Amino acid sequence: MQVSLIIAGLVLLAFLVSVPCGYLRQNYSKYSFMWFLLIHLPIPFIVLLRLKAGFGWQVIPLTLGGSVAGQIVGGYFSRRKK
């Protein structure tokens, strides 16, 4: 399997894990404990996926970008529902 395909899968998983957290984050006031927790909750899972896939720190910006995008999309869906 190509390395770029594995990296794309990691970014997609980072995105998918972060969408529910971004959705739930919209229900809490900004800078509250739960708001902070929901932003950082997917990070250990994403780090574990990255390490199990055998990648080093070089792919952190890509997975971080996927996670931020997931938070934004989740927040968008939560605001749109209201």
Q: How is the topology of this model organized?
A:
Layout: H1 3-25, H2 33-40, H3 43-52, H4 60-81
Helix pairs in contact: 1-2, 1-3, 1-4
Textual characterization of the structure:
This protein has 82 residues and is an all-alpha fold. The chain has one domain (3-81). Helix content is 77%, strand content 0%. It has helices spanning 3-25, 33-40, 43-52, 60-81. α1 (3-25) runs antiparallel to α2. It is elongated and about 40 Å long.
Distance between the first and last residues' Cα:
42 Å
If helices are DSSP runs of H or I spanning 4 or more residues, what is the number of helices? Answer: 4
Total number of beta strands:
0
The residue fraction in helices comes out at over 70%
Question: What is the typical, i.e. mean, pLDDT?
Answer: 94
The assigned structural class equals mainly alpha
Radius of gyration: 13 Å
Strand content: under 5%
Q: Name the poorly predicted regions.
A: none
- The backbone outline, from C-alpha atoms, is elongated
Largest sheet: none
The ordered H/E elements are: HHHH
